[in-house]
Amino acid sequence: MTSEEYIKNVTDQIRIRRLRPQIAKELSDHIMDQVAEYCGEGMSEEEAAQCAVREMGEPISVGEELNKIHRVHFPWKSWLFITCLFLMTIPMMSTMASLTERISFQDVFHFQMRNVILSVLISFLFCWIDYKKFLRASTALLACIDVLLLLAVIQNFYGYVHIGPFAMQAVSLVPFYLPLMGCEIYQFHTGNTKIRWFSLLNIILPFLFLILLQAFPTALSLLLGLLLLVETGKTSLTHRYSSFSLKGSILIVTAGLCASLIFYKKPSTIPPTILMGITKPADMQKAWLLSHWMGRSERAVAVLKSGVENALTDSTFLGMAAIYGKLPALIVVFILLLLSAMVLWLSSHQSNYLARLIGTGVGLAILLQTVRSVLSSFFSEYTLGNGLPIFSYGGTGMLMNAMILGMLLSIAAYKDVTPLELFTAVSKRTICNTSSSGN
Questions:
Q1: The domain containing residue 32 runs over which residues?
Q2: Cα distance between residue 264 and residue 160, in whole Å
Q3: Does residue 340 share a domain with residue 321?
Q4: Per-residue pLDDT tens for 332-389?
Q5: In a domain? residue 128
């Protein structure tokens, strides 16, 4: 059997076709190294090639072993973790429903349950998309989001984009930027000048549009996430990324606290247009109850008067503190921050450089949203946009987070291992099995 026939028999057993050329090259290089070694010992080239192929092991067995290792493994544990993360939205939204009479508990439960099921299905579907395909589509996807943000600026309707009968909050698309920017940072190392210019344009445009939309906290969060992502891209090249998550988490929390002071607005500076719509004594009493822990009645009244959606998204933790007490609310906050930091830690410790950048973008997006939600509930008097889209009352933000968490599942499912290392281990195992069966 020639080396070409042997390699073809091995690669025919690999179901993932995109891996066949890479594995074939590794096998060919390994055989050539063995042939050169045997020729140095005095063998002819033909004899050396036969010995090298014979020592590789039985081709069908080697190919089947490689196929078992390279097949897509569905990450059940990660998927269950993400499902639980989405299920947490139901009791949190139901908690806020008890603070106002404008919407019933059943309406919140059913609507949020439908969105949770849809989000879990989206993350499940994204899991089966090879994360490397996002590298090819990242520039186009970022351009689409830029267009939506531009439409929001042109329409000037509080960050919402209206396309026919449909409407979406353009700011909620921002979390999708960080994983895609991980792809753009990866392309910076390809040396393609055109790609670099497009990448630079895609990085600058969202900040410009967010500033025009007056979504300054969102722009600051995005800038902070981008800086940490660029730092990850640099340190990952030298394999010095083990302490990134802890440092990054501390930096995010510190910067968030500083941002809450920068964008802090006193009650007198809140636009009078949102101080309307609440007249029932029961609602007013609940508004005072909501602010009892922080001692800021103006904050609670302004939030509840601005509408149910803002109350549900911007003051979730404050409402939990008012209803169940400070300790349960702080425990929930601690658990969410811990889980978000764990997502960032797991995402930033991938063996593949591209997977590490995309995963870090996902982890940063989740952690930044969690920190911002806590700050908007406990520190800031007034914020623009949803504090935590992943826990929002349905909407675009929840679906966007389902997509990026699906990208994280895709990384876990399509995790790469060096083919040469795999082949060396598999061939040794196959040779040992053949020898033992022969004896």
A1: 3-70
A2: 24
A3: yes
A4: 777 777 777 777 777 766 767 788 888 888 888 888 777 777 666 655 443 434 444 5
A5: yes
The burial class, CB within 10 Å (0-12 / 13-18 / 19+), for 216 is: middle
Query: Does residue 161 sit in helix, strand or coil?
Result: strand
Task: Tell me the C-alpha distance between 363 and 346, whole Å.
Answer: 8
pLDDT per position as a tens digit, 223-268: 878 887 877 777 655 444 444 445 555 565 556 555 544 444 433 3
Other beta carbons within 10 angstroms of residue 74's beta carbon come to 13
99 and 50 in one domain?
A: no
Q: How far is CA 174 from the centre of its chain?
A: 12
pLDDT tens, 80-134?
877 777 777 776 666 655 555 445 556 666 777 777 788 888 888 888 888 888 8
Number of domains within the chain:
2
Q: Are residues 24 and 141 in the same domain?
A: no
Written as one letter, the residue type at 305 is K
d(CA 86, CA 82): 6
Which helix (H) or strand (E) segment holds residue 423: the answer is helix 419-438
Q: Strands 160-163 and 166-169: what pairing?
A: antiparallel
Backbone angles phi, psi at 309, to 5 degrees: -60, -45
Answer yes or no: do 60 and 93 share one domain.
no
Cα–Cα distance, 117 to 113 (Å, whole number): 6
Query: Is there a domain that residue 63 lies in?
Result: yes
When pLDDT is averaged across residues 55-59 and rounded to a whole number, the result is 79
Give start and end residues of each alpha helix (H) in 128-176: 133-155
Query: Measuring CA to CA, which residue among 6, 10, 34, 31 is closest to residue 20?
Result: 10
Tell whether 29 and 151 lie within a shared domain. no
Q: Which two tokens stand for residue 102?
A: 């404008």
Same domain, yes or no: 150 and 206: yes
